[in-house]
Amino acid sequence: MASATTTYRSFNQAEETMLREQRRAWQWQQLQALLERVSHNEFYRQRFAAAGVELRQIRTWDDFSTRVPCLTKKDLLEDQKTYPPYGRRLLAPEQDLAQAWITSGTSGVGQEVHALSDEDVRRGAEHCFYALTWAGMQPGDLNLVCWPVATMAGGLVLSEALRRFRAHSMLVQIFDSKTKLERMKTFQPHYLWVTPVYLTRLSALCEEMNFLPRRDLRRLKGVFISTGSYPIEWAERMQEFWGAPLYDVYGTTQIGTMFGATCEEGVVRDGKRGCFHFIDQWALLEVIDPGTGAPVAYGEEGDVVVTTFNRIATPLVRFRHGDRVRLLPPGYCPCGRTGPCLEAGTIARYDDMIKIKGVNVWPDATDAVLFSYPEVDEYNARVYVDQHAGREEIDMRVAFKAGTDLARRNQVLAFLPEQLRERTGVSMTVSEVTPDQLERFEYKALRWTDERITGLQKVKFKEKS
Ligand SMILES: [Zn+2]
User: Fold this and answer.
1) What is the mean pLDDT of each run of 10 residues along the chain (465 residues)?
2) 320-337 burial code (b ≥16 CB/10 A, e <16)
3) DSSP annotation of 292
4) Measured in angstroms, how far is the CA atom of residue 315 from the centroid of ligand 1?
5) Which residues contact 208 (CB under 8 A, 6 or more apart)?
């Protein structure tokens, strides 16, 4: 059932509305072809042999998800370290390679390198056309890109996708934030590409510069965000402030494209979160329980596991991402697309979770509390062990936007400790600082620092053995 007010724009209607049985049959063929292909590769042959898997035993989807072991970042790092530069998993001759992407390394474990053939680059870019079309983009539209475009997949895929879509891009990441806003005013983009944390930063700066996007950006049709989670209230406020809908995309270096994207409904509609739709002709999406490895039910959270059908040089079989997502039931979104869908705005890294006083605390939970106050500009939090009492303590420092009066600041500071305790289950000390005393983020937010002694560091789930 479509919303009466929404115009839906398919990029490929047959694929977007394919019946589940048809899709599964098509994917099964793709999977067979992929398994046959990797079975001649030394990296995969050894992995399967070590797990006691023979390809002729994989006759059903259940065989695949219970017998074939998940691949992790650690496996890829070991492979590329032992067989540099690309590891033994490389399936294309080096003379066919066109690009090499490096992961951002925010997990602190190491940076993966993924080689791509020219055909990989083209396919990854063109797959983004779904996301662009759903957001109403047309050839000729100007995109102001604040994402870093260097060695990481996000910016490289995006600029190639825009070029092939004939929507031109202006890459402004190297400029400071005020210059970026000035560029916006001068060149009047149709779309912006930012991260949630950076959009927050730009919005605060707009207010200081008397720049009102609703009034001053006359052509703005949408703001794309990615790589972060956000509260519903934040998204609604940003849409109001920027005068344009927010869209979100989900992709990783390992997948090689914007695999999932929000549709015309955007990230929030009438107080309800939007969703990422996945065009699963590109890859197989599984969501598994991080403890047991079993598939999760609709409505539950789990870890993303992806098997790529479309990558030539470095295909992946059951790569486990460590992204905590919520799997939504069919029919969640009124647009009628039939592929799998995940909740938008709540994706977090499992290794971002911090265990404090025995409780799992997610930074997105504290983000939700803090940014439910429009007056809050930014915050940092520090977990440490009190030298005298030996207790774990949390020190949260909050900066308010310019112009917030003292009475309101004190009121928010008085509310926060109880609200944070209710939301997370742990007590925190909250104090005010000035905005220039806080670290700023342009790409991925790292608001939390953990200063506890070894052993109380970030918790990680055990890999399924
Ligand atoms: Zn939809």
Assistant:
1) 68 92 94 95 95 91 94 94 95 94 66 94 96 97 90 87 96 92 96 89 87 97 89 92 97 92 96 94 94 94 95 96 93 94 89 75 87 92 75 89 94 96 91 88 73 45 33
2) bbbbbbbbbeeebbbbeb
3) T
4) 28
5) 402
Centroid of ligand 1 to alpha carbon of 233 (angstroms): 20
The CATH superfamily assigned to 9-352 is ANL, N-terminal domain (3.40.50.12780)
Beta strands, E only, 245-391: 246-252, 257-262, 268-269, 272-273, 275-278, 283-288, 301-308, 319-328, 341-343, 348-349, 354-356, 359-361, 376-385
Distance of CA 215 to the CA centre of its chain: 30
- Kindly report, residue by residue over 18-55, the tens digit of the pLDDT: 998 999 999 999 999 999 999 999 999 999 999 999 98
State pTM to two decimals: 0.83
Using the mean position of ligand 1's atoms as its centre, give its distance from the Cα of residue 1 in Å: 11
In the chain, what's the furthest Cα-to-Cα distance?
71
Q: Where are the alpha helices (DSSP H) in 54-134?
A: 61-67, 73-82, 118-127, 129-134
User: Position of tokens 């680059």?
Assistant: 121
* 354-450 shares the fold of 9-352: no
CATH code for the structural domain at 354-450:
3.30.300.30
Q: Ligand 1 centre and the CA of 272: distance in Å?
A: 12
- For residue 442, the 8-state DSSP code is S
- How far away, in angstroms, is 8 Cα from ligand 1 center? 9
Domain boundaries, the chain: 9-352, 354-450
Distance 265 CA to ligand 1 centre (A): 6
Q: Is 287 helix (H, G, I), strand (E, B) or coil?
A: strand
